[in-house]
Amino acid sequence: MNLAISEGLFGALKPQAPDALLSLIGLYRSDSRSSKLDLGVGVYRDLNGKTPVLRAVKAAEAQLLAEQATKAYLGPEGDLEFLDRLKPIIFDDATVSRAFGVQTPGGTGALRLAAELIASARPGARMFMGTPTWPNHPQIFDIAGLQTVTYAYFNSQTQSVRFNEMMDALEAAESGDALLLQACCHNPTGADLSMDQWRAVAELVARRGLTPLIDLAYHGLGLGLNEDAAGMRLVLDAAPDALLAYSCDKNFGLYRERVGALFALSQSRMRLELAAANNKALTRANWSMTPDHGAAVVRLILDSEDLTQAWKAELETMRRRILDVRHAVATAVPALSDLVHQQGMFAQLPLSPAQILRMREDYAVYMAGSGRINLAGLTPATIIPFAQAYAACLQEEFACAR
Q1: Among residues 1, 54, 56, 69, which is most buried (max CB within 10 A)?
Q2: Secondary structure class of 402 (helix, strand, coil)
């Protein structure tokens, strides 16, 4: 018998390792301890440990239910008014006119579309990317056929950005290379660039002729809407061409609706038109037509002054809660005092794999194997138990060292 026929199609596939975070979710669910603490999954949680539906979202959904007249397809760009309403929040006045957007299924869809556009323009192009980063970043770029070039971004021991190493690595980038940058609330470290550092990156991008791909997934959850976009705007203004992947899943709490957008920006009208045409073609080949509901909700919110103000107030509550958790953890665990200088939901703790395992097995504290924790998973009632577990792991390390 022909071996290829006997194996069938699927027999030729390569085994795939299970996703580490999804496996962690399964372990957490099967843990019967009432004290268990989930700091792995990257969703916002309120003081009660719940991921709420925002009141502004509920109001917009009620309006949509009452007024929506059709379920006919949107075009390949998606909801054009949704895209237009997002632009003034993301870009400065000078940049709005040179940005073309398409709606995508979440920020992940935007990143995948950006990777395919880069690969279409420059097959096998290089993508420079700091590590650690969101684990899905390299997978997206690899599948699209890009070459990833990594550099060290973060020192977990000092809880600081390795900026000099980053800039030294980027001096090796050449014109046409792409550069992934997280605009704010860095995932997984929470360590963002300062404005002076953003200025230096913008100068390098302009001088080396690089194409930045900005990942803006946590807009408004760091320092505020304008402040979170300030640094990346410098880079967008400096770059001949740029891409920006945006997610509404976190700042609007629309996780399961998968609401995102990819914006292409260029200093040349001709190049922007080429990017727009290719993005529409790639969109058609990937998902044909975008889902409507989540983007329509965002559009209705941003189209109403009252709902916009309500959303901004809820977003500020979320931001303040995360900031309060950072300060509370830093107070309870002096070794983690640097958390107050970082932004967003995530921090990467300087724990060994053995310590992370002990946190889970002995104290029911679940976190990613990298040491990344979702600070929004902590509540006032769980910060002290977390601090005690962390201190116990540190004491064990010092005892072994002696």
Answers
A1: 56
A2: coil
Q: What distances in angstroms separate CA 352 from CA 28, 231, 372, 375, 393, one per listed residue?
A: 20, 33, 12, 19, 10
217 given a catalytic annotation = yes
Annotation says 215 is catalytic: yes
Q: How confident is the model over 166-172, as a mean pLDDT?
A: 96
Report which of 394, 395, 396 is spatially closest to residue 349, judged by C-alpha positions: 394
Which of 265, 261, 222, 229 is closest to 245 using CA atoms? 261
Instruction: Give the Cα-Cα-Cα angle 137, 139, 141 (nearest 5 degrees).
Output: 70
3-class secondary structure, 76: coil
**CA pair distance 65, 43, nearest whole angstrom:** 26
Catalytic one of 79, 177, 192, 215: 215
**Peptide linkage before 132 cis (omega within 30 of 0):** yes
- pLDDT (0 to 100) of residue 389: 93
- Which architecture, in CATH terms, is 55-306? 3-Layer(aba) Sandwich (3.40)
Q: List the beta bridge partners of residue 263.
A: 101, 244
Domain 18-53+308-401 grouped into CATH 3.40.50.720: no
- Is the confidence at residue 17, as pLDDT, over 90? no
Output the pTM of the full model.
0.93
Classify residue 280 as exposed, middle or buried by CB count within 10 Å of its CB (0-12, 13-18, 19+).
middle
Read off the pLDDT of residues 318-334 as tens digits, 9 standing for 90 and up. 999 999 999 999 999 99
**Active-site choice (134, 239, 275, 328):** 134
Which is the catalytic residue, given 60, 115, 202, 217?
Answer: 217
CB 243 within 8 A of CB 194: no
* Active site (annotated) includes residue 169: no
Q: Which listed residue (250, 264, 275, 347) is catalytic?
A: 250
* pLDDT at residue 325 in the model: 97
pLDDT digits (tens, 9 = 90+) for 82-112: 999 999 999 998 888 899 999 999 999 999 9
- What are phi and psi for residue 266, nearest 5 degrees? -150, 150
**H or E segment at 386?**
helix 383-401
Tokens of 249: 């899943």
Mean pLDDT, rounded, for 8-36: 87
State the CB neighbour count (10 A cutoff) for residue 354. 12
Q: Name residues whose C-beta falls within 8 Å of residue 77's C-beta, 6 or more positions apart in sequence.
A: 83, 101, 102, 103, 280, 283
Domain ranges of the chain: 18-53+308-401, 55-306
